[in-house]
Structures are given as C-alpha cells and as structure tokens.
C-alpha cells in the first residue's frame, strides 16, 4: 500500500474548531493538500469545554471528552502553563491520557486506520502505544519542540520519550532546532526534518496612502514565549523617532496583562489589539504592514518557537521580518539576508532594528524580496508534500507487530 490510498489518523492536542480557527492550522493545511492524491484522514483531538465532533474539509474530527466542561480546556493556550498556574489541572491531565487512550482504541478498532500520526508525542505517544501494539497500527511521531523542552522541567519525560520513540516506525521534526534537541537527548535514529508551509493565501503588498502612519505587525498567541512585552517596552524609543502604529493579532492568557502594560506606558493611542481575525483579514494585515516583528523568547518553562510559521506568512507577503534569534527561528531567517535577527529580551536592540528598517526603504525591500524568494523555495508545499508522502510510504512498507503476534513468537 502507498500513502495515496492510506487512511491516516492524526492525533493532536490542537485543531481548528471552525474554518477560520487558528489552532494548529498548519496540520489542517497539510491534510487538505494531501487529500487530492487519495489519502484519507481522520483527526483525533481533545474536546474543548464539551465540544462535539464534526466534519471539516471532508475530514472526520473526533473530539474526545476527558473532563467536566470547566476544566476541559487543558490543551488550549498551553497545557504546561495551566498546570503551573492551577494544580487541579493535574487531574484533567491524568484523565486526558486515560480516557483519550480508551476512546482512541475504540475508534481505531472501528475505523481501522493504516497509520497513527502522533503530533506532540508527549503525552500522545503514551496514548497511541497501546492501540498501536494491540491493533498493529504503525506510529509516526512528529515533534514540534515544546514536548522536548518539557524535559528540562520534568525529569520523567525524557525516559518515557526515549522508550516510546524507539517504537515509532518513523520520526519527524519541524526544524533543525527541534532535530538537535531530539537527537542529542532522545533518539539517535533516522529523523526527517519537515517544516510547514503557508496556511493562508498570500496577497500582494499594499501601498500606504499619503500621510498614513507606518505599521508594525505582531501575530501570535499572547503568552510568555512570544515575548510581546519586550516589543511594548521598545515602543517608547521607536515612537520618539518615528510615528508608527503597532497592530497585534491574537489572544491568550496574558492578554489582560499586556493591555495593562500598554495603559501604564501610555501606549493606548499607538497600539491596537485586534484579537482573532479571519484568514482574509490576516492576509490583509500582512499585506498592509511595513515590518513584521516576532520578539520571541525562551520562557520560564524553557519553551520557545519550534519554527515560527507566522514569519513564513509575513515573508510570503514580501514584508521585512525582525525576530529574536531563538529556537527554530534561524531556520526561517538568515540575518541581514532574509530578515533581521536580534538577541531575545533586549528592547533597545529591537527598537534599533525596527527604526533601521523603517528609515531605510531600500534595505527593507531588499530583505523582503530575498525572504520571499527563499521561502518560495524552501517552504513551498510542492517541496513539503512529497516529504510527507515519503515518510508515510516508508511507514506502510514496514511489517506490523500486533501484540498477539508478538506473544505467539515469544511462545
């Protein structure tokens, strides 16, 4: 069997609930683009406060229940943060694994998928392994970085991941940053580095009207690792030299905190919080901004950007990008060639970089054009999709090992 005719069940902690949803849209986009070749997909993801299953893009999305509605939001906005802030979520985490494992088994017994594609293998690898062993369904593990950074905070994660990953038929990562952590700490076998591509239709850059203020754009979840507070700290110096508007797209558990920071700094006239927007609106924001900024950091939990798809989207709209040199960001941006890399947590360096780009249109255009050409080559779906097909074909070519067959061999 080849992947074009296979049925793949995708396990994930995040998936859009509506067509305009913005959680793990790169997973949805990958499956949409693989479907025309004949691959069938099913998604297995946690319920969000009692949400039910549905069909989207011709894909059955199973939302498994694991807790009462109040606490059935563990995976939304980052499980580690919730566990750190509210210990009661530890109970939700336990039932997430237990009840998710049971429901996964029954769905696989009924639907008989050919592959279990496990994203964020901790904890989903734990949930997938019993079903994989009992039903003889091979596992593909896809690491995104966050689950590996948990090893720094929880020592028990590393031995579990080492044991589980050796039992996967194939292993992928989203960046060289994730690859290095995985290879040095968990798994020395073959690892495929497969990034993700655009999840929106890129638009041509729009020109500013005469007298219109220049715009900075930030897109991302409002949490610690995105580093938005450092961009706000840089704004007074930027505004002292250049009239700009900062437009912020996204929501998260730090929303009230960063809005309070804006108010305390007197930035309310210069900063606009737009919340969630549609794909069409997001493309318009990329197309009309002058500079895209991602001031990411390594946060207090050791988490950081595994890749940074929002930068790829900004570059696809031919926009100059300024970002912190952390995590997988350097897989996307080459300093002073396809964008600007700055040290994390340094508002002065960030302000200096922003002002340098705003005041030098020729340099901004050079970086934007080079960035566009680069991502059209390295992050195109035409290049990415064959890599996924190769991984799935390799997985399907390996013999299955049902538990019953293993026991018979041992006997």
Could you give a quick summary of the protein structure above?
The chain is of the alpha/beta class and 411 residues long. Helices cover 43% and strands 16% of the residues. It has an eight-stranded mixed sheet, with helices on both faces.
CATH superfamily of the largest domain: Glycogen Phosphorylase B
CATH domain topology of the largest domain: Rossmann fold
Count of helices? 15
SSE string, helix = H, strand = E?
A: EHEEEHHEHEHHEHEEHEHEHEHEEHHHH
Strand percentage lies at 15-25%
- Give the strand line-up of the largest sheet: 3-4-2-1-5-6-7-8
- Low-confidence stretches at least 5 residues in length (pLDDT < 50)? 403-411
The description of the largest β-sheet is: 8 strands, mixed
Name the shape in a single word.
globular
Number of strands: 14
Mean pLDDT: 91
How would you name the oligomeric state of the polypeptide chains in this document?
single chain
Q: Provide the domain count.
A: 2
End-to-end separation:
30 Å
Radius of gyration: 22 Å
Structural class by SSE content = alpha/beta
Q: Name the CATH class of the largest domain.
A: Alpha Beta
> If classified by CATH, what would the architecture of the largest domain be?
3-Layer(aba) Sandwich
The helix fraction, in percent, is: 40-55%
Structure commentary:
The protein is an alpha/beta fold. It folds into two domains: 3-197 and 381-399, Glycogen Phosphorylase B (Rossmann fold); 214-378, Rossmann fold, CATH 3.40.50. The protein has helices spanning 25-34, 79-85, 89-111, 121-135, 146-149, 157-165, 176-185, 228-241, 255-264, 279-288, 309-316, 347-358, 361-378, 381-397, 403-410, and strands at residues 7-11, 40-46, 54-56, 59-64, 115-119, 139-143, 170-173, 192-193, 214-219, 244-249, 271-275, 291-294, 321-324, 340-342. The strands form two sheets. The protein has an eight-stranded mixed beta sheet, with helices on both faces. A six-stranded parallel beta sheet has the order 11-10-9-12-13-14, sandwiched between helices. Helix 8 (228-241) crosses helix 12 (347-358). The two termini are 30 Å apart.
